[in-house]
Amino acid sequence: MKRSLAFIFAALGWFAIIAQYYLMIENRTVSVSEATIRFFSFFTILTNIFVALYFSIISFSRNKSVSLINAPGTLTFLTIYIAVVGLVYQVALRHLWYPQGIQRLVDELLHSVIPILVILFWYLYEPKKNLKYNMAIKWFSYPLVYFIYILLRGNQSGFYPYPFVDVSILGFAGVIQNAFFLSLFFLGLSSAFIFMGKLLDKK
Fold first, then answer.
1. Residue 65's CB: how many other CB atoms inside 10 A?
2. Which of 51, 72, 103, 131 is the Cys-Cys partner for 99 at CB 3.0 to 4.6 Å?
3. What percent of the chain has pLDDT over 90?
4. pLDDT of the residue at 64
């Protein structure tokens, strides 16, 4: 059952990622190379790629000793950040545009459907007894590295993937303030998942 679900979730994930790339290339106003770099500059896309890779390995690997995939907390790490993708989109970004047709389908898959499916998979299959609160600090390296990258890339290209990190509009101080509150959100959500995991493990 676990591998069957992983296969279905991987297929949905890759479909959404590839379709989004196709749509972005088709509607680009910049070169293909620049559009491709921008595509991979979205936290949504990177996180969905990690999730799709995870499910692909789970569904196709016969070797249960794949260390990174089966390491304590890997699924929780992915669940937290795909949940961040969904929550930030629903609260801060959904009202900024109104996609239609295939773009709407892809948008809902990336920001709504896949986050819910990953949370379900986490509930069913994560070995929660191995979760520790200090893991949250290690997991924080992902958004930290991402934040540094988009600032450096944005300073060079003028492109910022999200309005709340757009230095050209908000200024550096405004972006740092937003990053601070997002950091608290990341760490708080990580702690909440670990706490829930420990409660579920006791049951």
1. 7
2. 103
3. 80
4. 58
Task: Mention every residue, 6+ apart, whose C-beta is less than 8 A from residue 69.
Answer: 54, 57, 58, 61
Instruction: List pLDDT tens digits, range 40-64.
Output: 999 999 999 999 999 999 988 766 5
* Residue 109 tokens, joined: 């898959």
The number of residues in the chain equals: 203
Q: Which two tokens stand for residue 11?
A: 């297929």
Tokens representing 141? Answer: 């390296």
Place of tokens 């907390």: 73
* Of 144 and 97, more confident: 144
If you search the block for the tokens 């990622």, which residue do you land on? 17
CB-based contact 114:9 (threshold 8 Å):
yes
Structure tokens at 4: 């069957």
Q: How far apart are CA 185 and CA 189, in angstroms?
A: 6
* Residue-wise DSSP of 74-141: HHHHHHHHHHHHHHHIIIIIGGG----THHHHHHHIIIIIHHHHHHHHHHHH--GGG--TTHHHHHTH
Contacts of 137 (CB under 8 A, 6+ apart): none
Q: Mean pLDDT over all residues of the chain?
A: 92
pTM for this prediction: 0.93
Q: Helix, strand, coil proportions of the chain in percent (round to 5)?
A: 80, 0, 20
